[in-house]
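Section 3.1: Structural characterization of target chains.
Under the original work plan, the team committed to producing a structural model for every single-chain target entering the pipeline before any wet-lab resources were allocated. The record below documents one such target. The sequence was received from the expression subgroup and is listed exactly as submitted; it comprises 187 residues.
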Amino acid sequence: VSDTEDVYPIVYFEDFEDSTQGWYKGVSEYGIVHALDAQYDTERDGLVGHFVYQNDSNYNWVLMGRSLNGIVNLSELDSVEIWARGSKGDSTQWLSFSFDVLMDSLTLDSLGYENGKSWVHLELDTTWQRYVITPKDLLETDSLKIGANLGWDNVKDHVTNLNLFGGGVGGPFEFWIDDITIYGVKP
């Protein structure tokens, strides 16, 4: 043990055992958030994050997110692991996980950055599933930067927030999140 070194440091980002305090919620014009709370789950043997929402269309959004309390360099990121389940269990509901850059205009101008994100879509099941997200899983950007997707290479060294977008048209939908763990980034 004394001569080993962590190749991929582990950061236990969130386990929700102390509630959803510190998480915020946001919606587009036609999205609705019904609840953001911690709920006891017997399968996970503890509190989990619980989010209830509905969307008017695929182009509207609802999210729960958390600030990283500043600019964080995630260039060495190996992966993020999350446990999640949804309420529908088919392709009508999904979850999008994103690494976001959210800065005021003065900070953006002084650092030469652009607000945006890098994300991946995950199809949810009604049973708890382990999802592992690596930089190669994230969507590539295109010239239109659809959904403010800048691509991993354009956000990785100055991430400010982690967000979870509830996907699906109609609803209400629910998703539950637990044990978000980040590998490869020093605390």
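The CA atoms of residues 38 and 158 lie 29 Å apart.
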